[in-house]
Here is the input.
Amino acid sequence: MSAPAPIQVLLVEDEEFDVERVRKTVRLVNTRIHIADVVSNGKAALEFIGQRNDRYDVVILDFQISGGLRGEELIQKMKELDPLLQIIVITKMTMNMTDLAFATSLLRAGAFWYCTKYPGNIEDYIYQPTDFILSVYNAYEKRRLEKQHQKSDRRLMKSIESMLEAKKIQGTSAPILQLREAIERYAKSDANVLITGASGTGKELVAWNIHLKSRRKFESFVPINCGGIPPELIESELFGYEKGAFTGANTSKPGLFEVANNGTVFLDEVSELPHPAQVKLLRVIQEGEIEKIGRRGALSVNVRIIAATNKELSREVSEHRFREDLFYRLNVIPLDLVPLKERGTDILELFTYFLGYFSADMNMPTPEVDEKAKEILLNYRWPGNVRELRNVAQRLVLNTSGRITAKDMTHPMILRTSPLTDEVMSVQEVGGGQILPLKEIERLFRTNYFKYVRSISSSDSNAAERLGLAPSNFYRMCKELGIK
Ligand SMILES: Nc1ncnc2c1ncn2[C@@H]1O[C@H](COP(=O)(O)OP(=O)(O)OP(=O)(O)O)[C@@H](O)[C@H]1O
Ligand SMILES: [Mg+2]
Here is the structure.
């Protein structure tokens, strides 16, 4: 094993006699401690430190040096240049020997250690040598640990940033801008959040974003699907049990709330939580304690709860399926996610984003989307919201090459419900909810249907062909209907 690199020291001392005494003191371990440079005033010290980050490990600083820049002010400036620098202050024997306030003011300014010099008649050493050398060693060790800390903090920050990038909430519509702002604001608090919204609107994504932007970001995010665990197992899943709590409990099992301690619990489909579990959950929120099955005495936990539901929870309350007190405890910050259909051009923005994402994933160029296909996307109802849009984009990347046309969009494999049903087939919608004479409703239907077929066809003759009409008939009928 090679010897460790010597500790690099900058000595700030203006009296030649004291420089010599420091040299003699550390010479006892001259392979371990290296006086790299000596300067006689604060300005020079800052210049030397500023030249290269990481140049020195430890500074030995005389408190009474000439020049204006000294003491606490100099210590602070050195720490600004290199926060990991460790500074040991030495002062004359005559001053401040018992002045604790003075010593603490140095430490507060950022010094690591403080000691008083031997009187001038002791020529060999400046300070009790082993104490002095050990304080340099300790200073170096502190720097090493701080460096390590900084490194792992940076690594953690990086992984949080890359998770946030992967879980980025796309879109620029007004509701999405408001949502992003709300997430920034509420992430800072520890209050419980209730996210409501239809299936596929991004509830889980929002929960992740709140967690990753909160103080709890380095701790666990534990998602629990309350509707997915059999009711008889839910309590042991959530709160765990001790060994021997019941027959078959051969080992103890931590509950998900215990696993999430100091982090965030995401209670998905919270309306499905059975009644006994609702009571226990209320206790977790009120007392910060869980009752583990078979354990005497409660266990303290600190979790933030983000709950989500696509049901109207207040209605579950009024119909006595959900506890009212629990509802108010969960609904401290309500966030409601609007359906995709109400987000306007977000539809195209998200679609482009997912096309790019899946094409890159498959190492393919991103297909272009023609105008008519865009129109279909914008007019579609999106009952499955963003999840459906994401799936549509993925299927299109798999099934088309180069360019996405209206024809691709209307392929039965692509959109879950045919756009036809949405736009022209609804009897109520065609007549605006009224009963009309057959002739009129036929005319309305024809108009809508012709418009629709034209919107998804590459040309008028293509539309005529799809309708099984000769082009000349198609033109005439269009004219009659006032389309052309
Ligand atoms: N604004 C958005 N930007 C990017 N991706 C999104 C956005 N909203 C939703 N998604 C994606 O859509 C999919 C569905 O989102 P998520 O699972 O969060 O919805 P949900 O509301 O929890 O749905 P469910 O009610 O069905 O559980 C996920 O793949 C998610 O990453
Ligand atoms: Mg979900």
Remarks:
- Confidence is low (pLDDT under 50) at residues 421-425.
- The longest helix spans residues 129-166.
